[in-house]
Amino acid sequence: MDMRKLIIASLMVCMPFGVSAQKAFKDWPDGVSPKAVGELVSKRFVEVPHPNFNGNPAPPNEITYPETCAWFGALRYADITNNKKLLRQLEERFLPIFGPERRLQPLPDHVDHTVFGTIPLQLYAQTGKEIYYQMGIWYADEQWKMPRNTKRKEEYQALLDKGLSWQTRYWIDDMFMISAIQSQAFFVTEDRKYIDRAAAEMVVYLDKIQRPNGLFYHAEDVPFFWGRGNGWMAAGMTELLGLLPEDNPNRPRILESYRKMMDTLCKYQKEDGLWGQLVDDPTTWTETSGSAMFIYAMIKGVKQGWLDEATYAPVVRRAWIALVGHIDKNGDVAGVCEGTNKTNDRQFYLNRRTLLGNMHGQAPVLWCVNAFLEK
């Protein structure tokens, strides 16, 4: 173990339980503070080219959702810290999409593609430029509009008739992707239709796929509590609750499910402070992207009063210090599970590779930073 990890390990052991959230979330050792981590990881995002290039000579086909989620996190960080230089860099990364890099813009034909609209909506919120608004709202609207020239019109119409997005498929990552774009559309327009339909969609998913212990299978036919998959649901509920008006009729149901999940996650926190590749088995290897999503959900919960401070503040502090121990000097997060499709084979999940600096991990680290820093 190198000296940095040894110091972090000792900090975890010595962390005082029962400490108030105000102190737990502000008194940080050198190199562990959210501000320091945010500077490092956001700088790294700006340095890295569109990552689905993967070193191949052929140009990337389109920007994928992990990059979108990291970009969204970096934009929020720029706003919270009033970092105008970073905002300019993030905008300059986007502008070629209107011209020479137009091919990189994904179409709103799938939940993983439609979430791209969060980037122009955040750019609009921070710059006021109408071109970003028009692009972002187009993504949000298309998620509830029958796609052209589809061969599945009857299937999609049945979903739309129920008030659901035609992109509904009942996979756990959907409820971050849908919640993020629709919540951002509500944020910039204040039109309740966006957030209300996202909340109604969330309740249908909760009724369909949440298990009695509060966790989620990867899909209905895959009975494993995969870490990052559960992270998407935790982050999705958190994202939605953060903007959902108090008088929304679905809010109590979503909050109840969120709390049930957080309670179970506390029980499965590993000795190292994080969570396993399979959440309900602490003997499985530590996975950082799902862990970061859980931390994000708990930070917001404590600060918003959704969770008991005395119970969750120590859990968060211990987990955050452990997570920072997996970030190297370049700002790359280690221990990130590679992209993982659903498979009804437990060993498949345990055999997944880990990728250093993969955007699946970079993104939720930035979300955690923002949750710590926002007022």
TrEMBL record:
The keyword Oxidoreductase does not apply. The keyword Signal applies. Keywords: Hydrolase, Signal. Pfam families: Glyco_hydro_88. GO terms for biological process: carbohydrate metabolic process. InterPro entries: 6-hairpin_glycosidase_sf (IPR008928), 6hp_glycosidase-like_sf (IPR012341), Glyco_hydro_88 (IPR010905), PolySaccharide_Degr_Enz (IPR052043). SUPFAM superfamilies: Six-hairpin glycosidases. GO terms for molecular function: hydrolase activity. Residues 1-21 form the signal peptide. Gene3D superfamilies: 1.50.10.10. PANTHER family: UNSATURATED RHAMNOGALACTURONAN HYDROLASE (EUROFUNG). This is Glycosyl hydrolase, family 88. It comes from Bacteroides fluxus YIT 12057.
